[in-house]
Write a structure and sequence with these properties.
Layout (H helix, E strand, L loop, with lengths): L1 H7 L2 E5 L4 H5 L6 H7 L2 E4 L3 H8 L6 H6 L5 H19 L1 H6 L6 E5 L8 H15 L4 E6 L4 H10 L4 E6 L2 H17 L8 E6 L1 H14 L2 H4 L5 H16 L3 H7 L7 E5 L12 H4 L6 E5 L1 H10 L11 H13 L4 H32 L1
Parallel strand pairs: 1-2, 1-8, 2-3, 3-4, 4-5, 5-6, 6-7, 7-8
Amino acid sequence: MSVADVAKGGTSIWLDDLSRAKISGTDAHSLPSRIAHSGVVGVTTNPSIFGAAIAGADEYAADIAAMKNASVDDVVKKLTTDDVRAACDLFKEIYSATKGVDGRVSIEVDPRLAHDTEATIAQGKELWSIIDRPNLMIKVPATIEGLPAITALIAAGISVNVTLIFSVKRYGAVIDAYISGIEAATNPAHVHSVASFFISRIDSSIDALLKKDGSEAAMSLLGKAAIANAHLAYQLFEEKFSSPRWQAQVARGAHKQRPLWASTGVKDPAYDDTRYVVELIAPDTVNTMPQSTLDAIIDHGKVRGNTITSNYGAAVEVLKDLSALDISLDSVTTDLEVDGVKKFAQAWDDLLANVKAAQQG
């Protein structure tokens, strides 16, 4: 079975989806069924996911009506934290069995705070307190302003999912921010973290530039940038978490911050729909996938074990070849971070507008 092979390779399967209907459902796509039969050991959410879940869904109507006079921000906070708390409870046994490594559910701070360090810290602590579950993770964007927030939350004993990482350089800064937080934490053994490295959006952007170039050299690089970038991120993970600085924290019971492959749904139909799973398997990793990608892995995924650590040299060559075509991966990843923050903020604004309309309806 493909999902068992993914886990055997060291990659935990998390589902990038959540709604009240999935939490309480009984069909094959419900969260209890996914946990029991599809190898799912965690869940991630984001503003777009909450927007899709709540907009027009009948199961939220009673809660929205009961808070008719509350601010729209308070209503959305209640709806999303209630769902995440319920999901945390579904994963309680996995959380215990894996000693806190898996069984995790993530909720993101308001994406409009992505460039406000202090507000991000404050809301991270607030969400941690409201949901009040040890298997929660607070999602913090990997913006420059987000880095000190990561350190502060980790130091406070709060588990963090760092999101919107696109470049290996920024990923290095994220790891350093995490280790700084662990060094300041009173009891690092209680803290876990993942670093969400985005995949498919990189290929979408780079492939567009390659097709615009149109040369044979360019066309031979289609679909190679995102996986190569992720492979080099994993190489950095191995280096950083074997350093003397980190080993000093291992002696205190600290846990590695695992790389999490996000945005693993394939956007180009010309590509195999399982490629961002099967090409990114290695020990101490997580892959959070949309429902369609998980179903594809179950149906026809061909898992080949560790597909990362033997490919560092090839990954370096891909980046060299892109550079030779004057395609700057740094420029692309910088634009993707800006765009990612903007899209999540827009999704959050849309969610607030939809809930406000429901309140007034």
